[in-house]
Amino acid sequence: MDNTQKGKLTSGNNASYWIDSVPGISYDPLKENKVTDVVIVGAGISGLTTAYCLLKSGKKVIVVEDGNVGSGETGRTTAHLTSALDDRYYELERVYGEKNTRLIANSHKAAIDFIEKTVLNLNIECNFERLFGYLFLHPSDDRGSLTKELEAAKKAGLEVEEVPYLPGIKEQAQSLRFSGQAQFHPLKYIKGLCDAIINMGGHIFTSTHADKINHEGIVTADGIKVTAKHVVVATNSPVNNKFVMHLKQYPHRTYVIGAKIKKGSLPKALWWDTGDFSENKEIPPYHYVRTQALDDTHDLLICGGEDHPTGIAEQAKINEEDRYSLLEYWAKKYFPIEEVVYQWSGQVLEPMDSLAYIGRNPIDKNNVYIVTGDSGNGMTHGTIAGILLTDIINGKENDWEKLYSPSRFKIFAAGKTFFKELAGGTLAYLKNKSHDSKPVEVGTILTNEGKIIEVEGEKFGAYRDENGELHIIAAECSHLKCIIKWNNDEKSWDCPCHGSRFTHEGKVLNGPANKNLQYFSKNK
């Protein structure tokens, strides 16, 4: 489904099930100067959980969002709530040691508990439910990886056991069964948070772009100021941090399909495979699956995966828009799916050492905080952020603070995997940059196609829309001047260096860029 047809503002052209199934959540834009204790930039799960927790602690809070509530990555998740993380526990133990790995597991368990309690306390109807999660072996993986993960997860304090089956899946196999996992409808949940925030005296302003951000507060694109004692940037990729954080994490696109299945034909559960080692031994792309009630006759099977570094889909010679058919092919091998009725993609930031960065912004004043590096577990990491940042701002000791500190730099513990990913992306970018430098005739650009063109030595992005009109923008990302790439799936211009994304008219969809690209023309 096309967001432009539905008139809903999100960070992609394809509408997720979550966005499609609820009315848009919006508030008035900010129109006058304000003074507050805390200003939060970003109204996704991280920013809103932080606002909710701070208000409960007695702080005055203002949230600003340049789109609608949940219009960023919160609206594009698959909404797994897990302490069984995307990164294996035996790898976390290698990097962090046993004691800290237990803290990691406890923080994600605490996040799920927090969501459950909040749902009950606020009476939020968001389809929250506890269920089992099943990790099973990808055919390319070694059988010993399940054994290693079982031992490490148990040491970390998780309730996990090996079972000789995979419930609901055609292929019967050994799997690890994790207790205490959960799922929910993310936009219904954050709407409940919004209601609570407003009821407690907080303020939320949508369609309000924070153009300037520093330790004194923010200034919007319209020149309106919010002066604050504390500033939290919860924009997925921090738009107030130009260099430091973007050397410690790398952006990926991940893809999702929603396919009809006969109602009740599958048990309620979460499923993951261990990843395709034949495609990438260092960071094997994996699949993740859950169900969601759809209508009287069908449920929805939500299946995600087929990740690749942002802006560099051609590295694997598979275009963005072709990855949905690969998901459908994989899902059909295991599940009784029928028609695919949804498809969308999202952005995941992979930190060098597997954990989110939550806390004080490096090389900044002590009252400026960031949340980033979701590592595929954005719903729990975002909830952890709300709990942790509230404690930091209130001067309360928290055992997670050092663990999630954005200033940490586990460069040697992270090892070769991160460097291969970072270097691989950079080399692919440089290779394709020279390719894009070749002149392209404007007349060769087809309907719904975008290409880099060159005029008098300068590069521009050119996109021809469904009406045949040509949209031309500056081709250098407004973050650090990398050359953008056309994403034919989401109809966006994506930066392969740090993951910034723009509409065909150059408007920012994803950070770290915080400035639009110059838009030159719309003509035939």
Describe this structure in words.
The protein has 524 residues and is of the alpha+beta class. The chain folds into three domains: 3-77 and 187-242 and 354-416, 3-Layer(bba) Sandwich (FAD/NAD(P)-binding domain), CATH 3.50.50.60; 125-184 and 247-351, D-Amino Acid Oxidase, subunit A, domain 2 (D-Amino Acid Oxidase, Chain A, domain 2); 436-523, Rieske [2Fe-2S] iron-sulphur domain (Rieske Iron-sulfur Protein), CATH 2.102.10.10. Helices cover 25% and strands 28% of the residues. The chain has ten helices and 25 strands. It has helices at 3-6, 17-20, 45-56, 89-122, 144-155, 186-199, 323-334, 378-393, 411-414, 416-436; strands spanning 34-41, 61-64, 80-81, 129-136, 160-163, 175-183, 203-205, 210-214, 217-220, 225-233, 249-262, 270-273, 288-293, 298-309, 340-351, 357-360, 368-372, 449-455, 458-464, 470-474, 485-487, 492-494, 501-502, 508-510, 519-523. The strands form four sheets. Strands 3, 4, 5, 6, 11, 12, 13, 14 and 15 form a nine-stranded mixed sheet that branches. A hairpin with a 2-residue loop joins strand 8 (210-214) and strand 9 (217-220). Helix 3 (45-56) packs parallel to helix 6, helix 4 (89-122) packs across helix 5 (144-155) and helix 4 packs across helix 8 (378-393). The radius of gyration is 22 Å and the shape is globular. The two termini are 27 Å apart. The relative contact order is 0.15.
